[in-house]
Design goal:
The protein is mostly beta strands. Helix content is 9%, strand content 38%.
Length: 568
Protein backbone atom coordinates (compact mmCIF):
# COMPACT_ATOMS: atom_id res chain seq x y z
CA UNK A 1 0.00 0.00 0.00
CA UNK A 2 2.81 2.35 0.99
CA UNK A 3 4.47 1.82 -2.40
CA UNK A 4 1.13 2.48 -4.13
CA UNK A 5 0.79 5.81 -2.29
CA UNK A 6 4.39 6.71 -3.20
CA UNK A 7 3.68 6.00 -6.89
CA UNK A 8 0.28 7.71 -6.78
CA UNK A 9 1.49 10.95 -5.22
CA UNK A 10 3.81 11.95 -8.11
CA UNK A 11 1.05 11.01 -10.57
CA UNK A 12 -1.44 13.25 -8.74
CA UNK A 13 1.14 16.06 -8.57
CA UNK A 14 1.96 15.70 -12.28
CA UNK A 15 -1.76 15.66 -13.14
CA UNK A 16 -2.30 18.90 -11.18
CA UNK A 17 0.66 20.57 -12.89
CA UNK A 18 -0.55 19.40 -16.30
CA UNK A 19 -4.06 20.64 -15.58
CA UNK A 20 -2.80 24.21 -15.13
CA UNK A 21 -0.12 24.08 -17.79
CA UNK A 22 -1.95 21.69 -20.10
CA UNK A 23 -4.72 21.94 -22.69
CA UNK A 24 -5.92 25.13 -24.38
CA UNK A 25 -8.84 25.94 -22.09
CA UNK A 26 -10.33 23.77 -19.45
CA UNK A 27 -12.84 23.64 -16.59
CA UNK A 28 -11.36 23.88 -13.11
CA UNK A 29 -13.25 22.77 -10.02
CA UNK A 30 -12.59 24.16 -6.54
CA UNK A 31 -14.33 23.48 -3.21
CA UNK A 32 -14.58 26.27 -0.67
CA UNK A 33 -15.79 25.20 2.77
CA UNK A 34 -16.62 28.22 4.89
CA UNK A 35 -15.61 27.10 8.38
CA UNK A 36 -14.43 28.42 11.73
CA UNK A 37 -10.75 28.02 12.54
CA UNK A 38 -8.73 28.94 15.62
CA UNK A 39 -5.89 31.23 14.55
CA UNK A 40 -3.22 32.80 16.78
CA UNK A 41 -1.33 36.03 16.04
CA UNK A 42 0.26 38.55 18.47
CA UNK A 43 -0.43 36.07 21.33
CA UNK A 44 -4.19 36.35 20.66
CA UNK A 45 -6.09 33.21 19.66
CA UNK A 46 -9.51 33.63 18.11
CA UNK A 47 -12.02 31.57 16.20
CA UNK A 48 -12.51 33.13 12.79
CA UNK A 49 -14.34 32.53 9.52
CA UNK A 50 -12.04 30.99 6.89
CA UNK A 51 -12.10 29.07 3.64
CA UNK A 52 -11.00 25.44 4.21
CA UNK A 53 -9.51 26.43 7.59
CA UNK A 54 -6.77 28.47 5.89
CA UNK A 55 -5.77 32.08 6.62
CA UNK A 56 -5.30 33.57 4.08
CA UNK A 57 -7.45 31.28 1.96
CA UNK A 58 -6.38 28.93 -0.84
CA UNK A 59 -4.85 30.14 -4.08
CA UNK A 60 -6.94 29.80 -7.24
CA UNK A 61 -4.93 29.32 -10.42
CA UNK A 62 -6.42 29.30 -13.92
CA UNK A 63 -5.55 30.25 -17.46
CA UNK A 64 -7.13 32.90 -19.64
CA UNK A 65 -10.16 31.26 -21.30
CA UNK A 66 -10.72 28.71 -18.51
CA UNK A 67 -14.07 28.07 -16.87
CA UNK A 68 -14.18 28.02 -13.09
CA UNK A 69 -16.70 26.08 -11.01
CA UNK A 70 -16.20 26.98 -7.35
CA UNK A 71 -18.58 25.30 -4.93
CA UNK A 72 -18.95 27.33 -1.74
CA UNK A 73 -20.55 25.52 1.21
CA UNK A 74 -21.38 27.51 4.34
CA UNK A 75 -20.66 25.73 7.66
CA UNK A 76 -20.78 28.87 9.86
CA UNK A 77 -23.61 30.90 11.40
CA UNK A 78 -22.79 34.03 9.33
CA UNK A 79 -24.28 34.52 5.88
CA UNK A 80 -21.54 34.46 3.22
CA UNK A 81 -20.84 35.46 -0.39
CA UNK A 82 -17.57 35.44 -2.36
CA UNK A 83 -16.52 38.10 -4.90
CA UNK A 84 -13.94 37.37 -7.61
CA UNK A 85 -12.38 40.81 -7.55
CA UNK A 86 -11.53 42.13 -11.00
CA UNK A 87 -13.09 39.27 -12.99
CA UNK A 88 -15.24 40.87 -15.69
CA UNK A 89 -18.05 38.28 -15.39
CA UNK A 90 -19.20 38.81 -18.98
CA UNK A 91 -22.96 37.98 -18.93
CA UNK A 92 -22.39 35.94 -15.73
CA UNK A 93 -23.32 38.58 -13.14
CA UNK A 94 -24.97 35.89 -10.99
CA UNK A 95 -21.42 34.79 -10.06
CA UNK A 96 -20.08 38.24 -9.13
CA UNK A 97 -20.77 37.87 -5.41
CA UNK A 98 -21.68 41.15 -3.64
CA UNK A 99 -24.45 40.37 -1.15
CA UNK A 100 -27.90 41.76 -2.04
CA UNK A 101 -26.53 43.20 -5.31
CA UNK A 102 -26.11 40.12 -7.55
CA UNK A 103 -27.23 37.42 -5.13
CA UNK A 104 -28.78 36.69 -1.79
CA UNK A 105 -26.13 35.41 0.61
CA UNK A 106 -25.40 31.71 1.12
CA UNK A 107 -27.04 30.84 4.41
CA UNK A 108 -25.85 28.36 7.03
CA UNK A 109 -25.86 24.80 5.68
CA UNK A 110 -26.40 25.94 2.09
CA UNK A 111 -24.06 25.91 -0.90
CA UNK A 112 -23.74 27.72 -4.22
CA UNK A 113 -21.55 27.08 -7.26
CA UNK A 114 -19.88 30.18 -8.68
CA UNK A 115 -19.73 29.43 -12.41
CA UNK A 116 -17.85 31.79 -14.71
CA UNK A 117 -15.36 31.92 -17.57
CA UNK A 118 -12.24 34.09 -17.60
CA UNK A 119 -12.58 36.02 -20.88
CA UNK A 120 -9.72 38.14 -22.23
CA UNK A 121 -8.00 38.57 -18.88
CA UNK A 122 -4.70 37.44 -17.44
CA UNK A 123 -2.75 38.57 -14.35
CA UNK A 124 -3.07 38.89 -10.59
CA UNK A 125 -6.49 39.32 -8.99
CA UNK A 126 -7.96 38.08 -5.73
CA UNK A 127 -11.16 36.74 -4.20
CA UNK A 128 -12.76 37.86 -0.96
CA UNK A 129 -15.98 37.66 1.06
CA UNK A 130 -18.42 40.41 0.04
CA UNK A 131 -20.75 40.76 2.99
CA UNK A 132 -20.29 42.86 6.14
CA UNK A 133 -16.60 42.81 7.23
CA UNK A 134 -15.97 39.08 6.67
CA UNK A 135 -13.32 39.76 4.04
CA UNK A 136 -10.99 40.57 6.97
CA UNK A 137 -10.21 36.83 7.10
CA UNK A 138 -11.90 35.41 3.97
CA UNK A 139 -9.59 36.23 1.05
CA UNK A 140 -6.95 34.70 -1.19
CA UNK A 141 -5.06 35.08 -4.49
CA UNK A 142 -6.73 34.52 -7.88
CA UNK A 143 -3.99 34.04 -10.44
CA UNK A 144 -4.77 33.93 -14.15
CA UNK A 145 -1.91 32.70 -16.32
CA UNK A 146 -1.76 33.66 -20.00
CA UNK A 147 -3.06 31.19 -22.56
CA UNK A 148 -0.76 28.26 -23.22
CA UNK A 149 2.42 29.18 -25.16
CA UNK A 150 1.62 32.91 -24.81
CA UNK A 151 4.61 34.58 -23.10
CA UNK A 152 4.57 37.50 -20.69
CA UNK A 153 5.49 40.82 -22.38
CA UNK A 154 8.49 40.98 -20.00
CA UNK A 155 11.38 38.75 -18.84
CA UNK A 156 10.19 35.26 -17.94
CA UNK A 157 10.59 35.05 -14.17
CA UNK A 158 12.54 32.28 -12.45
CA UNK A 159 9.74 32.01 -9.87
CA UNK A 160 6.40 33.66 -9.05
CA UNK A 161 5.40 34.58 -5.50
CA UNK A 162 2.03 36.02 -4.39
CA UNK A 163 2.26 38.46 -1.44
CA UNK A 164 -1.18 39.41 -0.15
CA UNK A 165 -1.42 42.32 2.30
CA UNK A 166 -4.04 41.99 5.04
CA UNK A 167 -5.12 43.30 8.41
CA UNK A 168 -5.24 41.40 11.67
CA UNK A 169 -7.72 42.24 14.44
CA UNK A 170 -7.28 40.77 17.93
CA UNK A 171 -11.06 40.90 18.31
CA UNK A 172 -13.83 39.91 15.90
CA UNK A 173 -14.20 42.47 13.04
CA UNK A 174 -17.94 41.63 12.89
CA UNK A 175 -18.30 42.84 16.50
CA UNK A 176 -16.29 45.98 15.67
CA UNK A 177 -18.54 47.09 12.81
CA UNK A 178 -21.69 46.05 14.73
CA UNK A 179 -20.64 48.31 17.62
CA UNK A 180 -19.77 51.21 15.28
CA UNK A 181 -23.12 50.85 13.50
CA UNK A 182 -24.89 50.96 16.84
CA UNK A 183 -23.04 54.03 18.19
CA UNK A 184 -22.68 55.93 14.90
CA UNK A 185 -18.98 56.48 15.68
CA UNK A 186 -15.80 55.37 13.96
CA UNK A 187 -14.91 51.66 14.30
CA UNK A 188 -11.90 50.38 16.24
CA UNK A 189 -8.80 49.93 14.06
CA UNK A 190 -6.80 46.77 13.33
CA UNK A 191 -3.94 45.56 15.53
CA UNK A 192 -1.50 44.66 12.74
CA UNK A 193 -0.93 44.48 9.01
CA UNK A 194 0.15 41.17 7.49
CA UNK A 195 2.02 39.65 4.53
CA UNK A 196 0.37 36.33 3.62
CA UNK A 197 -1.31 36.35 7.04
CA UNK A 198 1.92 37.03 9.01
CA UNK A 199 2.48 40.33 10.90
CA UNK A 200 6.25 39.98 11.28
CA UNK A 201 8.87 40.93 13.90
CA UNK A 202 7.99 44.60 14.52
CA UNK A 203 4.94 43.60 16.60
CA UNK A 204 4.98 42.15 20.12
CA UNK A 205 4.86 38.36 20.29
CA UNK A 206 5.10 38.03 16.51
CA UNK A 207 8.71 37.26 15.48
CA UNK A 208 7.84 33.61 14.73
CA UNK A 209 5.01 34.75 12.40
CA UNK A 210 7.21 36.40 9.77
CA UNK A 211 6.91 36.05 5.99
CA UNK A 212 10.29 35.08 4.51
CA UNK A 213 11.03 35.36 0.81
CA UNK A 214 13.99 33.06 0.12
CA UNK A 215 15.77 33.92 -3.14
CA UNK A 216 18.77 32.81 -5.19
CA UNK A 217 21.29 35.39 -6.45
CA UNK A 218 21.11 36.54 -10.09
CA UNK A 219 17.47 35.55 -10.67
CA UNK A 220 14.30 37.41 -11.60
CA UNK A 221 11.25 36.88 -9.38
CA UNK A 222 7.70 37.95 -10.20
CA UNK A 223 6.04 39.25 -7.04
CA UNK A 224 2.25 39.34 -7.29
CA UNK A 225 1.29 42.03 -4.77
CA UNK A 226 -2.33 42.23 -3.59
CA UNK A 227 -3.81 44.69 -1.10
CA UNK A 228 -6.59 42.81 0.69
CA UNK A 229 -6.47 45.09 3.76
CA UNK A 230 -9.82 46.23 5.07
CA UNK A 231 -9.36 49.96 5.51
CA UNK A 232 -5.85 51.03 4.55
CA UNK A 233 -3.85 52.04 1.50
CA UNK A 234 -0.30 50.74 1.98
CA UNK A 235 3.19 51.78 0.91
CA UNK A 236 5.52 48.83 0.12
CA UNK A 237 9.29 48.64 -0.28
CA UNK A 238 12.19 46.16 -0.06
CA UNK A 239 15.49 47.47 1.33
CA UNK A 240 18.30 47.98 -1.25
CA UNK A 241 16.25 46.49 -4.12
CA UNK A 242 14.57 48.15 -7.08
CA UNK A 243 11.24 46.80 -8.29
CA UNK A 244 10.08 46.90 -11.90
CA UNK A 245 6.31 47.46 -12.19
CA UNK A 246 4.88 45.42 -15.10
CA UNK A 247 1.16 45.07 -14.34
CA UNK A 248 -1.62 46.74 -12.35
CA UNK A 249 -5.06 45.21 -11.67
CA UNK A 250 -4.30 42.36 -14.12
CA UNK A 251 -3.49 44.72 -17.02
CA UNK A 252 0.04 44.98 -18.40
CA UNK A 253 1.63 48.43 -18.04
CA UNK A 254 4.67 50.11 -19.58
CA UNK A 255 7.43 48.84 -17.27
CA UNK A 256 9.11 51.30 -14.90
CA UNK A 257 11.48 51.02 -11.93
CA UNK A 258 10.64 52.18 -8.44
CA UNK A 259 11.92 51.72 -4.88
CA UNK A 260 8.43 52.07 -3.36
CA UNK A 261 4.86 51.26 -4.38
CA UNK A 262 1.45 52.37 -3.16
CA UNK A 263 -1.47 49.94 -3.27
CA UNK A 264 -5.02 50.82 -2.26
CA UNK A 265 -7.31 48.07 -0.96
CA UNK A 266 -8.64 46.20 -4.00
CA UNK A 267 -5.57 46.96 -6.11
CA UNK A 268 -2.95 44.47 -7.32
CA UNK A 269 0.48 45.13 -8.83
CA UNK A 270 2.98 42.74 -10.39
CA UNK A 271 6.63 43.63 -10.00
CA UNK A 272 9.86 42.02 -11.16
CA UNK A 273 12.51 41.69 -8.47
CA UNK A 274 15.99 41.12 -9.90
CA UNK A 275 18.16 39.70 -7.14
CA UNK A 276 21.79 40.72 -6.60
CA UNK A 277 24.30 38.88 -8.77
CA UNK A 278 26.07 37.25 -5.82
CA UNK A 279 25.36 36.50 -2.17
CA UNK A 280 25.17 39.94 -0.47
CA UNK A 281 26.02 38.82 3.07
CA UNK A 282 22.93 40.54 4.45
CA UNK A 283 19.16 40.19 4.85
CA UNK A 284 16.67 42.80 3.72
CA UNK A 285 13.41 43.90 5.30
CA UNK A 286 10.30 44.34 3.17
CA UNK A 287 7.88 46.74 4.82
CA UNK A 288 4.36 48.00 4.35
CA UNK A 289 2.66 50.78 6.30
CA UNK A 290 -0.38 52.99 5.69
CA UNK A 291 -0.88 56.05 3.53
CA UNK A 292 -3.33 58.17 5.52
CA UNK A 293 -5.29 61.23 4.38
CA UNK A 294 -8.43 61.23 6.57
CA UNK A 295 -9.10 62.75 9.98
CA UNK A 296 -10.01 59.52 11.80
CA UNK A 297 -7.90 57.13 13.85
CA UNK A 298 -5.92 54.48 12.00
CA UNK A 299 -3.60 51.55 12.63
CA UNK A 300 -0.21 53.32 12.62
CA UNK A 301 1.95 50.17 12.53
CA UNK A 302 4.28 48.42 10.08
CA UNK A 303 4.30 44.86 8.75
CA UNK A 304 7.74 43.40 8.01
CA UNK A 305 8.88 40.41 6.01
CA UNK A 306 12.44 39.32 5.29
CA UNK A 307 14.17 38.83 1.94
CA UNK A 308 16.81 36.13 2.50
CA UNK A 309 19.42 35.01 -0.03
CA UNK A 310 20.17 31.29 -0.17
CA UNK A 311 23.78 30.46 0.58
CA UNK A 312 25.78 27.23 0.68
CA UNK A 313 27.33 28.42 3.94
CA UNK A 314 25.02 28.94 6.93
CA UNK A 315 25.76 32.40 8.28
CA UNK A 316 24.43 33.81 11.55
CA UNK A 317 23.90 37.42 12.62
CA UNK A 318 23.83 38.87 9.12
CA UNK A 319 23.20 42.64 8.95
CA UNK A 320 19.54 43.51 8.33
CA UNK A 321 18.82 46.45 6.03
CA UNK A 322 15.63 48.47 6.33
CA UNK A 323 13.91 50.47 3.56
CA UNK A 324 12.77 54.08 3.95
CA UNK A 325 9.05 54.51 3.30
CA UNK A 326 7.32 57.80 2.42
CA UNK A 327 5.73 59.73 5.30
CA UNK A 328 2.19 58.70 6.26
CA UNK A 329 0.49 61.53 4.35
CA UNK A 330 2.82 61.77 1.32
CA UNK A 331 0.17 62.57 -1.30
CA UNK A 332 2.84 63.97 -3.62
CA UNK A 333 4.53 60.52 -3.84
CA UNK A 334 1.17 58.83 -4.45
CA UNK A 335 0.32 61.28 -7.26
CA UNK A 336 3.71 60.85 -8.97
CA UNK A 337 3.47 57.07 -8.69
CA UNK A 338 -0.04 56.86 -10.15
CA UNK A 339 0.93 59.20 -13.00
CA UNK A 340 3.70 56.77 -14.02
CA UNK A 341 1.21 53.97 -14.67
CA UNK A 342 0.46 53.74 -18.42
CA UNK A 343 -1.13 51.03 -20.53
CA UNK A 344 1.15 49.08 -22.87
CA UNK A 345 -1.13 50.25 -25.72
CA UNK A 346 0.60 47.84 -28.12
CA UNK A 347 -0.83 45.94 -31.08
CA UNK A 348 -1.14 42.82 -28.93
CA UNK A 349 -2.42 44.66 -25.83
CA UNK A 350 -4.26 47.75 -27.13
CA UNK A 351 -5.80 50.47 -24.97
CA UNK A 352 -9.32 50.73 -26.40
CA UNK A 353 -10.18 54.04 -24.77
CA UNK A 354 -13.72 55.21 -25.63
CA UNK A 355 -13.24 58.34 -27.77
CA UNK A 356 -16.88 59.34 -28.38
CA UNK A 357 -18.77 59.68 -25.08
CA UNK A 358 -22.54 59.04 -24.77
CA UNK A 359 -22.94 59.89 -21.06
CA UNK A 360 -20.95 62.48 -19.08
CA UNK A 361 -21.45 61.90 -15.35
CA UNK A 362 -20.16 63.76 -12.30
CA UNK A 363 -20.21 62.07 -8.86
CA UNK A 364 -19.15 63.63 -5.57
CA UNK A 365 -17.72 61.05 -3.16
CA UNK A 366 -17.14 61.68 0.49
CA UNK A 367 -18.29 61.54 4.07
CA UNK A 368 -21.31 63.11 5.75
CA UNK A 369 -23.58 62.60 8.70
CA UNK A 370 -27.01 61.28 9.61
CA UNK A 371 -29.11 62.56 12.51
CA UNK A 372 -29.01 60.55 15.72
CA UNK A 373 -32.20 58.64 16.60
CA UNK A 374 -34.39 60.11 19.36
CA UNK A 375 -33.40 59.07 22.91
CA UNK A 376 -29.96 57.89 21.75
CA UNK A 377 -26.48 59.39 22.06
CA UNK A 378 -24.36 59.01 18.93
CA UNK A 379 -20.57 59.15 18.72
CA UNK A 380 -20.25 60.72 15.26
CA UNK A 381 -19.41 64.42 14.63
CA UNK A 382 -21.33 66.75 17.03
CA UNK A 383 -23.51 63.90 18.31
CA UNK A 384 -24.58 62.70 14.84
CA UNK A 385 -23.87 59.40 13.07
CA UNK A 386 -21.08 58.98 10.52
CA UNK A 387 -22.32 58.45 6.97
CA UNK A 388 -20.87 58.45 3.45
CA UNK A 389 -22.40 59.01 0.04
CA UNK A 390 -22.09 59.39 -3.73
CA UNK A 391 -23.87 62.53 -5.00
CA UNK A 392 -25.20 62.84 -1.45
CA UNK A 393 -27.07 59.52 -1.78
CA UNK A 394 -26.04 57.12 0.96
CA UNK A 395 -26.86 53.66 -0.43
CA UNK A 396 -29.42 51.61 1.48
CA UNK A 397 -28.77 47.89 1.11
CA UNK A 398 -31.96 46.15 -0.05
CA UNK A 399 -33.28 42.97 1.60
CA UNK A 400 -33.52 41.13 -1.74
CA UNK A 401 -30.90 40.99 -4.51
CA UNK A 402 -31.03 43.78 -7.11
CA UNK A 403 -30.07 41.54 -10.04
CA UNK A 404 -32.98 39.16 -9.41
CA UNK A 405 -35.39 42.07 -8.93
CA UNK A 406 -34.31 43.46 -12.30
CA UNK A 407 -34.26 40.13 -14.15
CA UNK A 408 -37.74 39.10 -12.98
CA UNK A 409 -39.11 42.62 -13.44
CA UNK A 410 -39.88 43.01 -9.72
CA UNK A 411 -38.03 46.24 -9.01
CA UNK A 412 -40.98 48.12 -7.53
CA UNK A 413 -40.26 48.94 -3.90
CA UNK A 414 -36.73 47.48 -4.21
CA UNK A 415 -34.82 50.21 -6.06
CA UNK A 416 -35.26 53.45 -8.00
CA UNK A 417 -33.70 53.70 -11.49
CA UNK A 418 -32.96 57.44 -11.07
CA UNK A 419 -29.50 57.80 -9.60
CA UNK A 420 -28.52 61.50 -9.98
CA UNK A 421 -26.13 62.24 -12.87
CA UNK A 422 -24.55 65.05 -10.83
CA UNK A 423 -24.95 66.50 -7.31
CA UNK A 424 -28.34 68.11 -6.72
CA UNK A 425 -26.69 70.98 -4.80
CA UNK A 426 -23.48 72.56 -6.04
CA UNK A 427 -20.98 73.74 -3.42
CA UNK A 428 -17.25 74.44 -3.24
CA UNK A 429 -16.44 70.72 -3.04
CA UNK A 430 -12.88 71.03 -1.72
CA UNK A 431 -13.27 74.40 0.04
CA UNK A 432 -15.17 75.36 3.20
CA UNK A 433 -17.78 72.63 3.71
CA UNK A 434 -21.50 73.52 3.89
CA UNK A 435 -23.20 73.78 7.29
CA UNK A 436 -25.64 70.98 6.50
CA UNK A 437 -23.68 67.71 6.21
CA UNK A 438 -26.68 65.35 6.31
CA UNK A 439 -26.89 62.75 3.53
CA UNK A 440 -30.03 61.36 1.89
CA UNK A 441 -30.64 57.60 2.11
CA UNK A 442 -31.95 55.55 -0.82
CA UNK A 443 -31.41 52.53 -3.08
CA UNK A 444 -30.85 54.13 -6.49
CA UNK A 445 -29.34 52.65 -9.65
CA UNK A 446 -27.81 54.37 -12.67
CA UNK A 447 -29.38 52.77 -15.77
CA UNK A 448 -27.27 52.49 -18.92
CA UNK A 449 -28.37 51.10 -22.31
CA UNK A 450 -26.09 48.34 -23.63
CA UNK A 451 -22.81 49.65 -25.16
CA UNK A 452 -23.13 53.16 -23.69
CA UNK A 453 -19.73 54.86 -23.51
CA UNK A 454 -19.37 56.58 -20.14
CA UNK A 455 -17.11 59.30 -18.84
CA UNK A 456 -17.34 59.58 -15.07
CA UNK A 457 -15.62 62.26 -13.00
CA UNK A 458 -15.42 61.42 -9.29
CA UNK A 459 -14.81 64.41 -7.03
CA UNK A 460 -13.65 64.13 -3.42
CA UNK A 461 -15.35 66.51 -0.97
CA UNK A 462 -14.09 68.31 2.12
CA UNK A 463 -17.15 67.43 4.20
CA UNK A 464 -15.59 66.07 7.43
CA UNK A 465 -12.20 66.55 5.75
CA UNK A 466 -10.77 65.59 2.36
CA UNK A 467 -9.71 61.96 2.01
CA UNK A 468 -8.48 59.53 -0.65
CA UNK A 469 -11.23 57.06 -1.65
CA UNK A 470 -10.28 53.89 -3.61
CA UNK A 471 -13.35 53.30 -5.79
CA UNK A 472 -13.89 49.79 -7.19
CA UNK A 473 -16.18 49.09 -10.15
CA UNK A 474 -17.53 45.55 -10.56
CA UNK A 475 -18.02 44.01 -14.03
CA UNK A 476 -15.68 46.35 -15.90
CA UNK A 477 -12.21 47.72 -16.25
CA UNK A 478 -11.99 51.46 -16.86
CA UNK A 479 -9.38 53.84 -18.24
CA UNK A 480 -8.04 56.53 -15.90
CA UNK A 481 -7.91 59.46 -18.35
CA UNK A 482 -7.20 62.30 -15.92
CA UNK A 483 -6.82 63.37 -12.31
CA UNK A 484 -6.09 66.54 -10.42
CA UNK A 485 -6.48 68.50 -7.18
CA UNK A 486 -9.13 71.02 -6.17
CA UNK A 487 -12.48 71.20 -7.95
CA UNK A 488 -12.81 69.62 -11.39
CA UNK A 489 -13.10 72.22 -14.15
CA UNK A 490 -15.20 70.84 -17.07
CA UNK A 491 -13.89 73.56 -19.40
CA UNK A 492 -10.15 73.30 -18.74
CA UNK A 493 -9.38 69.84 -17.35
CA UNK A 494 -10.53 67.63 -20.28
CA UNK A 495 -7.91 69.33 -22.50
CA UNK A 496 -5.24 67.46 -20.51
CA UNK A 497 -6.89 64.02 -20.61
CA UNK A 498 -4.71 61.14 -21.77
CA UNK A 499 -6.75 59.26 -24.40
CA UNK A 500 -3.73 57.41 -25.89
CA UNK A 501 -2.25 55.13 -23.21
CA UNK A 502 -4.09 55.72 -19.89
CA UNK A 503 -3.80 52.97 -17.29
CA UNK A 504 -6.70 50.50 -17.30
CA UNK A 505 -7.81 49.14 -13.93
CA UNK A 506 -10.73 48.12 -11.71
CA UNK A 507 -9.94 50.18 -8.57
CA UNK A 508 -8.73 53.79 -8.50
CA UNK A 509 -8.01 56.20 -5.66
CA UNK A 510 -10.01 59.43 -5.92
CA UNK A 511 -7.21 61.81 -4.83
CA UNK A 512 -7.50 63.47 -1.43
CA UNK A 513 -9.02 66.90 -2.11
CA UNK A 514 -9.11 66.21 -5.83
CA UNK A 515 -10.85 64.36 -8.67
CA UNK A 516 -10.31 61.49 -11.09
CA UNK A 517 -11.86 60.97 -14.56
CA UNK A 518 -12.49 57.47 -15.90
CA UNK A 519 -13.97 56.10 -19.14
CA UNK A 520 -15.56 52.71 -19.78
CA UNK A 521 -17.84 50.99 -22.26
CA UNK A 522 -21.00 49.49 -20.70
CA UNK A 523 -20.80 46.27 -22.74
CA UNK A 524 -21.67 43.86 -19.92
CA UNK A 525 -25.39 43.45 -19.05
CA UNK A 526 -26.28 43.12 -15.38
CA UNK A 527 -26.24 45.00 -12.07
CA UNK A 528 -22.76 46.15 -11.13
CA UNK A 529 -21.73 47.43 -7.72
CA UNK A 530 -19.43 50.43 -7.36
CA UNK A 531 -18.11 51.29 -3.92
CA UNK A 532 -15.24 52.61 -1.88
CA UNK A 533 -12.90 49.71 -1.02
CA UNK A 534 -12.26 51.14 2.44
CA UNK A 535 -14.71 48.84 4.20
CA UNK A 536 -15.68 51.42 6.82
CA UNK A 537 -16.84 53.84 4.10
CA UNK A 538 -18.80 51.08 2.34
CA UNK A 539 -20.54 50.33 5.66
CA UNK A 540 -21.43 54.03 5.92
CA UNK A 541 -23.04 54.04 2.45
CA UNK A 542 -20.30 55.09 -0.02
CA UNK A 543 -21.64 52.79 -2.72
CA UNK A 544 -24.07 52.62 -5.64
CA UNK A 545 -24.94 50.27 -8.50
CA UNK A 546 -25.13 50.45 -12.29
CA UNK A 547 -27.84 48.63 -14.23
CA UNK A 548 -26.62 47.82 -17.73
CA UNK A 549 -29.53 46.73 -19.92
CA UNK A 550 -29.43 43.81 -22.36
CA UNK A 551 -28.35 44.43 -25.94
CA UNK A 552 -30.31 43.30 -29.02
CA UNK A 553 -28.26 40.20 -29.89
CA UNK A 554 -28.38 36.93 -27.94
CA UNK A 555 -24.68 37.27 -26.96
CA UNK A 556 -25.44 40.70 -25.47
CA UNK A 557 -27.97 39.45 -22.93
CA UNK A 558 -27.54 38.42 -19.31
CA UNK A 559 -27.72 34.63 -18.99
CA UNK A 560 -30.60 33.23 -16.90
CA UNK A 561 -29.94 32.65 -13.17
CA UNK A 562 -28.51 29.28 -12.11
CA UNK A 563 -30.87 26.82 -10.41
CA UNK A 564 -28.91 26.89 -7.13
CA UNK A 565 -28.90 30.70 -6.79
CA UNK A 566 -29.37 31.36 -3.04
CA UNK A 567 -32.70 32.67 -1.78
CA UNK A 568 -33.07 35.56 0.67
Amino acid sequence: MDGFVRIMFPIVAITLILSVYGVASTTRNYEFNIQLQNVTRLCHTKSMVTVNGKFPGPRIVAREGDRLLIKVTNHVSNNITIHWHGIRQIRSGWADGPAYITQCPIQTGQSYVYNYTVVGQRGTLFWHAHISWLRASVYGPLIILPKLHVPYPFTKPYKEVPIIFGEWFNTDPEAIIAQATQTGGGPNVSDAYTFNGLPGPLYNCSAKDTFKLKVKPGKTYLLRLINAALNDELFFSIANHTLKVVEADAIYVKPFDTETLILAPGQTTNVLLKTKSKFPGANFLMLARPYVTGQGTFDNSTVAGILEYESSVHMKNLPLFKPTLPSLNDTSFVTKFSNRLRSLASAQFPANVPQKIDRHLFFTVGLGTSPCEKNQTCQGPNGTRFAASINNVSFVQPSVALLQSHYFDQSKGVYSPYFPINPLHWFNYTGTPPNNTFVSNDTKLMVLPFNTSVELVMQDTSILGVESHPLHLHGFNFFVVGQGFGNYDPNKDPKNFNLIDPVERNTIGVPSGGWVAIRFLADNPGVWFMHCHLEVHTSWGLKMAWLVLDGKNPNQKLLPPPADLPKC
